[in-house]
Give the backbone structure.
Amino acid sequence: MRVRLLVLVMLLVTACSGMPRHRAEPTPTPAPLLPTTHKTVWLCQPGLPKNPCEGGLDATAVGRNGSRKHEEPPVRTQAVDCFYVYPTVSPSKRLNAPLVATAAEVRTARAQVGRFSSVCRVFAPVYRQITVNALLTGRYGDRAGRALSHADVVSAWHDYLNRNPGRRFVLIGHSQGSLELLRLIQEEIDGHPDLRSRLVSALLLGGNVKVPPGKDVGGDLQNVPLCRSARQQGCLVTYNTYDATPPRNALFGKADPARGLVAACTNPSALAGGVGALVPYLPTAKLGTFSAVLGSFDTGFVTYPGYLTAACRQQNGAAWLQVALHRTGHDTRPLLPKALGAAWGLHLYDVNLALGNLVNLVRAESS
């Protein structure tokens, strides 16, 4: 018996001595790098010296009687990233802007996306956009010009993904920036579950996103629905602001009868529908940007609590976010500006009229 037991032990020792003590884990295969066309010129990115998307985030809250209260910059909790594409701002006389950051891009980024830096790491590429001059001279739809502009955005997007694998992201665009990001979502995100799972939300403001009547998904995007809750992930916020029913020649929020689609509208102050209170943050002259704010302020932004409400309105397939003032007898706060005429509505201020709501939404979605 002792001999048989000794033989069994020797066999076990011999067998085990030929096995590895620890099972070797397979070496993960790195994801292939996505193609880029050139080195990205970053207007804003984490660690960039003199980052225009950081700083100057404090605000002055103005009451009905003109009283002022200082608001400290919000505390940072950057759990996600924000990829921002700015609107048509280039003063270049060419069809496409040069691939350099000018004062126009800097001040626009500061005004529109700076306060988002409290809730996300902001990445904002410079791109050879269609310029203001091209827009005014009827060349906005030039195919070669649009292709060059879009190629820059895609290249920068690939650069961002290559450098930040696995990070969740928010897409933010206004006007031309929204058009670029809508196309980017159609081509690179809508049909790709892995990237859709990382999409926190897409804020495509002042664009023209279309959906089937009564639906939150379909039309321009097949898998990314409109946002109806601050707890919803992978969804879309889109609207165009007017302070009255848009005229027949309105430039935004129009239907697409040829495809049987209507304009989409999500109210950032009441995602589930109805009327909500807007939380505007308008840039002051101190921020080094355009300003419709009257008076002198030593903060980057001015906000007017309890002053504006908004609701999505529809008429003949058109849809828009109608903004209303609530002025009482001796209210000293300013009227809404109309810089570009009735057809444009409040287009210049699409972002800033609801900036507080949008930042709070990203904070809630990413927490």
